[in-house]
Design a protein that fits this description.
about 300 residues; alpha+beta; Jelly Rolls; Arc Repressor Mutant, subunit A; 4-stranded antiparallel β-sheet; disordered N terminus
């Protein structure tokens, strides 16, 4: 059903003004003078931020699109958006990111079950690069999220900070929080996300297994069989999520652990090599140098001064 049909017979349409709403619109003059000329802030920055609870009759039409990316995070009820490509409904615990566009766009609350949503508009000099790199088209389809209060707290950090005024410190802090907030949606399934349980993802389990066996020699068959996958399928999944082949990633974990031991202990280099599974300290030196760009001894000398 189209958005127009959902609103047929309804004379009330509201852009804002909902009981309990929160909204901050950063003035254009402020953005020009305090952010757009600041190389630390002008890559990505907040332009509008808000929360609409049970937003009955919420409706917004943008005939010429929007220069910002818009992130909608629905926590209750339902809403929708419509553009040239068609109509999508957004339900509780789903999000979308609508990339900056000059094409027609509209969105609003479901007529019978209006949404409650957190939203952020963000813009910046690097928006075109950001949208290409992370392929914002994939987030045009509503995506399910596990409810997590930490995302809400991040949103509140941004909002509460901006509500305290537009000092440079406040603007910097809120916009640095923006990166974390947006990343929690884009990288929601990655092993390094703090917004997911460690046992949610087979790749995370595999990495934890590698860490638990940091001093062993593991082969791809050892790891894939542990999780009941074929070696080829597991390798493909692992590379897709991490950008590395499994054994290459395992080596990086070994070298990361070696760096920690070089930094925090007085262990001899040969003992560190053995600890992370290299019986031959010369081979360990070559691997370390290849990844870190210096020998273990030089690394320790440089970092310990």
């Amino acid at each position: 059903m189209s958005a127009e049909k959902r609103y047929k017979g309804l004379s009330i349409r509201k852009r804002d003004g909902f009981t309990g709403e929160k909204q901050i619109i950063l003035p254009d003059k402020l953005l020009r003078e305090r952010i757009q000329n600041d190389p630390l802030l002008n890559n990505l920055y907040i332009t509008l931020i808000g929360y609409f609870p049970k937003a009955s009759f919420h409706y917004r039409e943008r005939r010429w699109g929007c220069k910002d990316n818009i992130l909608f995070y629905c926590i209750d009820g339902k809403g929708w958006y419509e553009n040239k490509a068609g109509y999508c409904e957004i339900k509780a615990n789903e999000f979308v990111i609508l990339p900056a566009t000059d094409k027609y766009l509209r969105y609003g609350a479901h007529a019978d079950d209006p949404w409650s949503l957190y939203w952020v508009h963000f813009c910046g000099d690097q928006i075109p690069h950001f949208n290409r790199t992370y392929d914002m088209r994939q987030f045009l389809t509503p995506t399910i999220l596990r409810p997590d209060e930490r995302r809400i707290r991040l949103w509140e950090e941004m909002y509460d900070t901006l509500e305290m005024g537009y000092s440079l410190d406040n603007l910097s802090y809120a916009n640095f929080c923006l990166y974390h907030f947006v990343a929690s949606f884009i990288f929601r399934n990655h092993n390094f996300s703090s917004f997911r349980k460690k046992d949610d993802n087979i790749i995370t389990q595999a990495i934890l297994y590698m860490r638990e066996n940091i001093g062993q020699r593991l082969w791809i068959d050892d790891i894939s069989e542990k999780f009941s996958y074929s070696a080829s399928h597991f390798s493909s999944l692992f590379r897709k999520q991490t950008g590395f082949a499994p054994l290459e990633y395992f080596i990086h974990l070994k070298i990361q652990k070696a760096c920690q031991l070089l930094d925090l202990t007085e262990m001899k280099v040969k003992d560190i090599a053995a600890f992370v599974g290299y019986e031959d300290p010369y081979f360990f030196n070559r691997i370390f140098n290849k990844i870190i760009g210096t020998s273990p001894s030089e690394y320790r000398k440089k970092n310990k001064g």
